[in-house]
Every structure is written in C-alpha cells, then in structure tokens.
Amino acid sequence: MTPYLLFLVLLTFGCSKPTEVENPPATLLVQAYLTPGEDPQVVVRQTLPPGQFYDGREEPVRGAQVEIATGDQRFALDEDPAAPGTYHFPAAQLPVEAGHTYQLQVHHQQHQLQASTTVPDPVRITEISADSLVYFQLFGDLFGDLIHPGEFRWTKPANTAGYVVSIQALQVRNLPVTADPLTGDLDTLIARRQRLQGQVSADSLAALDQQIETLRSYFSENISLVRAEGDTMRWLRDRQQEDWDKIAGKDWTEGRKWRERRQILNENNVVDYRIPADTLRGDYWWLGLRFEGEYQVVLHAADQNYFDYFTTAFNGFSGDDGDKGPLFHLDGGLGVFGSYTQDSFRVQVYRGNKGRPKLVVRK
C-alpha cells in the first residue's frame, strides 16, 4: 500500500512541465506511519529530475537529522546502515501511544521539514459475518466482482479522520519492483551461455549455469502461488487462471515471463480502500479476493494526515486546473507523517466448481 503511494508522489512531483527547461529544485519527501507496538520509522527521500526518475532511480537522503518529539521528550532516530534513507528508533524507548501527539523534524543541508500527528484511540472489530467463503464462476456473469460476500463492524475510536481497509492474500509470494533488473540479468546470462557454447571450457559454462540456476531458484521461490504445504493455489476466476497458465507458453524471454508474473501478482495480491469516519461497518468484496487460500483483512483507524494522504494520493494526474494534487500536512516538504491504530481478522477463501454459493457463518 504505502510504498505505492510514495511512488505516486515521486511521479507527480519528480516530473517537470513540458515547457520547463531547468530541473526543479529537489524537495524532501518523507513517509512515516506511527502505530502502537511498532518501532517508529521514517523514510526520507528527495524528488528527482525527470530523467533520473524514468531511469528507475530513487534518491534516499543519507545523513539527515531526524527527530521525533512528544511532550518534553525528544528522540534522535538512527539511520539503518542496510537501508539508506530509513531512520528508526526502538519502540521500547519511544513507545507510540494512542491519544498522544508526536512532532517530526527533519534537517538535511538547507532543507527543514516539520509535521505533527495525534494517534487515534484503539479500534476494535466487534462483528464478522463469515470467515469462510466460496467463490463460484457464475458470480462473474452476475456482476459478482461488485458484490460483497461478507461484512464486519467495529467500535468508533476518538481522533479518527477515517478508515483504511487492506485485504491481502497471505500465501502469495512475490517480490517488489526493484527485483525487475534481476530478470534482465537472467536473460543476459542465458544469452551469454548460448553464445559461448563450444567456445569456452566446460568449467566456464558450469559457472554460468550455476549463476543462471541461482536466479531461477530465487524467482521460483519468491514469485509463486505454491504454498508451504507444497500445493499450488488456484485463481478464483477461470479467465485469470487461464491467463496465468498461458505465460509459460509465451514466446518471451525467461526474464520477461518472471516480470509479467511479478506484476500480475502485485496487482492482485492486495486491495486497499477507504471508509469515511461516520461509518462503522465495512465489506470484504469479491473484487479484492483473487486467489484461493487465507486472507488477512486489516482495519486502520487513521489520523487526518494518513487519511487525507491516502484519499488524495491519485490526484495530480487529471490535468484539470482544479486538481491540486495530493494533500500533505507537512511544512517544508512532501509526503506523510501520520498515525493509526488497527485490528484485523482472517478469512479462508475456496474455489467452488459447481453448486450454489454459500457462506460459513462465524460462530
């Protein structure tokens, strides 16, 4: 969810207008969501010139001074040596508590950014209509993607601007978009292996074979519908199962096949949607359920910063003069410094081949 929203902001503000000659100055961009029980973490980036953005680059901000204050206490976050631009602090020393207000300050060179968030009170799911669902192919002919097979309800917490629901298939394994260059490496190694066949020693070819198999194993283990038990999950819809199976027979390079699989799983593995603050019930839609297996439905009670950012993240692409772009609650930069509390439950989804649809009611 959130990394994709960050991507949208980089896309919106990293691009210049067609009439601009000079690149716009870099701007700090932060992403941080505080929630009780988790270490505070702040990701600091800066916007890129258009040419660098479309090369697939990102610009983490190293060596920034990142502080979070609450009450009369102030904490300096440490940069993760394994993840440049990511700053964190142990929750044991800086606990995030419901109802408390936290201030963020980021200093880097001539840039200064400030923001504040008040953590909503705890949210609690009180009712779930069903925790096992069966999808039938006839749903596709009856606008089944648009109906909801179950619903849930919750208590109303204070300091909440709205709710964000995330539905994720837990047993689907996938990689981020940053793995795509490795698929190109696989194609390069395979082409090199074919070109050198009969021209170099067997040991040299064996070394190439080992590199190729290492990448193949990496992709097959991490871009997969195979469960830990060894069986393969099916898509709920026949048409999507057919499209997935056809990839293996396409006249594409092996690397492209893995890229296509990764992108398809990324587009279907998680669905997020918002619910206004005056509503205390939500649906888990068939639209968000694509595979057999276990799903986790997560409810976030979001503060104003988080909810506004999530709601407006797709703004800025319409071309309309009234489109002001994403809404930020920051001084001196872009992004989000928000907070939330959460509750969740799990749903088991099955693929029905015939018969009538049914729900297994939660007892």
Please describe the topology of this protein.
Blueprint: H1 2-14, E1 28-34, E2 41-46, H2 50-54, E3 65-70, E4 73-76, E5 78-79, E6 86-88, E7 101-108, E8 111-118, E9 125-128, E10 130-136, H3 138-141, E11 150-154, E12 162-169, H4 180-196, H5 202-222, H6 238-246, H7 254-269, E13 270-276, E14 281-284, E15 293-302, H8 304-312, E16 334-352, E17 359-361
pLDDT averaged over residues: 87
Strand content: 25-35%
Order of helical and strand elements: HEEHEEEEEEEEHEEHHHHEEEHEE
What's the Cα radius of gyration? 23 Å
Q: Please provide the count of β strands.
A: 17
Q: What is the SS-derived class?
A: alpha+beta
The largest sheet, given as strand count, sense and whether it forms a barrel, is: 10 strands, mixed
As for the number of domains, it is: 3
Q: What's the helical proportion of residues?
A: 25-40%
Task: Sum up the structure in keywords.
10-stranded mixed sheet, 26% helix, alpha+beta, disordered C terminus, 4-stranded antiparallel sheet, 8 helices, globular
Descriptive report:
- By secondary structure, the protein is α+β, with helices and mostly antiparallel strands.
- The chain folds into three domains: 2-119 and 303-339, no CATH class; 125-172 and 269-295 and 346-361, no CATH class; 177-266, no CATH class.
- The chain is built from eight helices and 17 strands.
- The chain has helices spanning 2-14, 50-54, 138-141, 180-196, 202-222, 238-246, 254-269, 304-312, and strands at residues 28-34, 41-46, 65-70, 73-76, 78-79, 86-88, 101-108, 111-118, 125-128, 130-136, 150-154, 162-169, 270-276, 281-284, 293-302, 334-352, 359-361.
- The strands form three sheets. Strands 1, 2, 5, 6, 10, 12, 13, 15, 16 and 17 form a ten-stranded mixed beta sheet that branches. A four-stranded antiparallel beta sheet has the order 4-3-7-8, with no helix packed on it. A three-stranded antiparallel beta sheet has the order 9-11-14, with no helix packed on it.
- Helix 4 (180-196) runs antiparallel to helix 5 (202-222) and helix 4 runs antiparallel to helix 7.
- The two termini are 31 Å apart.
